[in-house]
Design goal:
heterodimer; A: mainly beta; 5-stranded antiparallel β-sheet; 56% strand; globular; B: mainly beta; 6-stranded mixed β-sheet; 4-stranded antiparallel β-sheet; 10 strands; 46% strand
Chain lengths: 113, 116
């Protein structure tokens, strides 16, 4: 039973356009959400997070939106750059406990020059 | 280095052999995690160490898997009598305390295990 789902295994966008990566979750106890980025042959690196008390968090070109009623979050990257090409993992946890982080299966983003 | 270090980066072994994977966390980080990523899957939690507390082993898939953390620093993940389904990338991460609200886990580059 996948509690965190990333239904799009891949996404291609043109440089300069917006990239939207989606993530759905089923566990209503999740109240902290993170996005990680992973380049080939490297470990995932933290990108941005959001607490359930917010519905939006922005950091430069990256914005995460949270829709609690729909149990859905999305990561927007604008403008997209070729260096953004990577696998993006959505993760969620209850009560801010890193021990209980649950990851999605990832979305491969390719930004075309 | 300043980051999480894992070794070996690649390991090819025969079914039935034992393997050891090593993780050297960021100095001063009290929490250490092992995850694995099988092909096309997300990161699967395996085990968690926090300071001197008993480790949380609830993610270990079978009793062939074990891990230890010596001196609160370096950790070794051991897989006995490896099976083909153990083939995956094994990722180690550390964090300063263990709460995700401080930001994030710091991951190593992973150890890719292939069981023939």
């Amino acid at each position: 039973d996948q509690q965190v789902k990333q239904n799009s295994p891949s996404l291609s966008v043109q440089e300069g356009r917006i990239s939207i990566l989606n993530c759905d979750y089923t566990n209503s106890m999740f109240d902290y959400f993170l996005w990680y980025k992973k380049y080939p042959a490297e470990g995932p690196t933290f990108l941005i997070s959001i607490s359930s008390i917010k519905d939006k968090n922005e950091d430069g070109r990256f914005t995460v939106f949270l829709n609690k009623s729909a149990k859905h979050l999305s990561l927007h990257i604008v403008p997209s750059q070729p260096g953004d090409s990577a696998v993006y993992f959505c993760a969620a946890s209850p009560s801010g406990s890193a021990r209980q982080l649950t990851f999605g299966s990832g979305t491969q983003l390719t930004v075309l020059p | 280095g300043a980051g999480v270090s894992q070794s070996p980066s690649n390991k090819v072994t025969e079914k039935g052999k034992d393997v050891e994977l090593r993780c050297d966390p960021i100095s001063g980080h009290t929490a250490l995690y092992w995850y694995r990523q099988s092909l096309g899957q997300g990161l699967e939690f395996l085990i968690y160490f926090q300071g001197n507390s008993a480790p949380d082993k609830s993610g270990l898939p079978s009793d062939r898997f074990s891990a230890e953390r010596t001196g609160g620093s370096v950790s070794t993940l051991t897989i006995q009598r490896t099976q083909q389904e153990d083939s995956a990338v094994y990722l180690c991460a550390s964090s300063l305390f263990g709460g995700v609200d401080t930001g994030e886990l710091f991951f190593g580059e992973g150890s890719r295990l292939t069981v023939l």
